[in-house]
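Design request, tokens follow.
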């Protein structure tokens, strides 16, 4: 972290991620976390956006406890930030970002099935297939959230925080 302003920004944006997830928690697999992390990775330095995802994951562990999903949570959300950060110069449009966000939502359960697949291919496949409907909902939800909010949020974040990070 470069400055106190940056530390406060990371804390604030991490809290916004948690709050946005909790506000929509009554809807299965509909969330703004993917969208917001995408916006943050597009506009902030890598270490800032990655730290936001790490703090979000830690707070989720505090809220929901630790389980077999905790390590994958760090890998999947952190991995999404890495992918978006390195594709930000190639994917500019609302449509491109919506497709990327949808693909992430569709593959979320697949990534979580990988540790089970290491134990047994059948277990990994069963885990993934049992959650396929929720991955579909996740992907469609991510696509719609991005299509609805991208233009406004991308421009606003870019204007408001460009000087900080």
């Amino acid at each position: 972290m470069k400055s106190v302003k940056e530390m406060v920004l990371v804390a604030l944006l991490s809290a916004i991620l948690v709050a946005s997830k909790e506000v929509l928690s009554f809807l299965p697999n509909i969330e703004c976390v993917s969208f917001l992390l995408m916006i943050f990775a597009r506009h902030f330095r890598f270490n800032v956006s990655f730290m936001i995802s790490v703090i979000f994951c830690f707070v989720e562990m505090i809220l929901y406890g630790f389980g077999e999903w905790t390590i994958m949570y760090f890998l999947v959300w952190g991995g999404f930030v890495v992918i978006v950060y390195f594709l930000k110069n190639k994917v500019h449009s609302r449509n491109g970002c919506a497709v990327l966000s949808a693909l992430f939502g569709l593959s979320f359960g697949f990534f979580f099935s990988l540790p089970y697949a290491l134990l047994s291919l059948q277990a990994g496949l069963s885990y993934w297939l049992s959650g396929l409907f929720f991955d579909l909902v996740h992907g469609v939800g991510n696509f719609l959230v991005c299509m609805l909010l991208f233009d406004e949020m991308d421009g606003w974040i870019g204007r408001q925080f460009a000087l900080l990070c």
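Comment from the thread starter after seeing the answer: thanks! Residues 4-161 form a domain with the Arp2/3 complex 21 kDa subunit ARPC3 fold (CATH 1.10.1760.20).
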